[in-house]
Design goal:
Helices cover 35% and strands 25% of the residues. With 236 residues, the chain is of the alpha/beta class. The strands form three sheets. A five-stranded mixed β-sheet has the order 5-4-3-8-9, sandwiched between helices. Strand 1 and strand 2 form a beta hairpin.
């Protein structure tokens, strides 16, 4: 869930003494630089601006294109936020050995549809990742099954600025959102500076301690706070 608006409510704002109304209810609407991932309900005498402070920290944005024989998905990953820009489906004819004298014609039809598909993927990538003659992300990761991802990444139909920013191509077993999640795992070496990769490494280390039963972990708020008070927690 992503929220694009943060509302801060204060119901006891002191007004000027010259006015008859001493207090006034005020609502401030703030649009964060990055979408908020979780709703926050916070009652206090001060505003909790930590989500806004976190969005001010600049993080690299990487473009991810998942392409296979059933469709294509365009997304960006920045910090711990995944954003799907666009996706579409396609139906490519499969290879077959039958056909006799018609086999070359079937092969030409399939090759033509494949070329049109690659053209559409390149055109959408040029539209989504180029703004004011500049690339909007720091790099690109192409993923998918078979060789389609590589053909798109080196295609002359793809803008040369995008081709120059390709970080890697990775093999994934699925397309769509499942392929996007698998891409983040397979290409972690190229995403090591992003918040989503740092969080995954912390969770993997935590689960590894549980699997080895080292007693170097704690569950629940009480045990965790006790470990923090004792200074026995490792910072990451």
């Amino acid at each position: 869930m992503e929220l694009s608006l943060l509302k801060a409510l204060c119901s006891t704002v002191d007004m000027c003494r010259s006015t008859a109304q001493r207090q006034k209810k005020v609502v401030f609407d703030v649009v964060p630089l990055q979408p908020l991932r979780h709703p926050i309900y916070h009652c206090s005498d001060t505003f909790d601006t930590s989500p806004l402070s976190a969005s001010l920290k600049e993080d690299q944005a990487v473009g991810i294109i998942v392409v296979d024989g059933q469709g294509c998905l365009f997304a960006t990953i920045q910090g711990n936020t995944k954003r799907v820009l666009h996706r579409f489906s396609v139906s490519l004819p499969s290879k077959h050995r039958r056909g006799g004298q018609s086999a070359p014609r079937f092969a030409r039809i399939r090759q033509e549809k494949k070329h049109n598909y690659i053209r559409k993927v390149c055109e959408e990538a040029n539209r989504l990742y180029l703004e004011k003659e500049a690339v909007t992300v720091t790099g690109f990761i192409f993923s998918g099954s078979a060789s389609l991802k590589t053909e798109v990444a080196v295609s002359p139909l793809l803008d040369q600025r995008i081709r120059a920013a390709v970080l890697t191509t990775v093999d994934v077993a699925y397309g769509g959102m499942s392929g996007l999640s698998e891409t983040l795992i397979q290409a972690e070496a190229h995403l090591c500076n992003l918040q989503v990769s740092r969080e995954r490494r912390v969770l993997n280390a935590f689960f590894d301690e549980i699997a080895r039963d080292t007693n170097l972990y704690s569950f629940g708020a009480a045990e965790t706070m006790s470990a923090l008070d004792q200074g026995s927690c490792q910072s990451s």
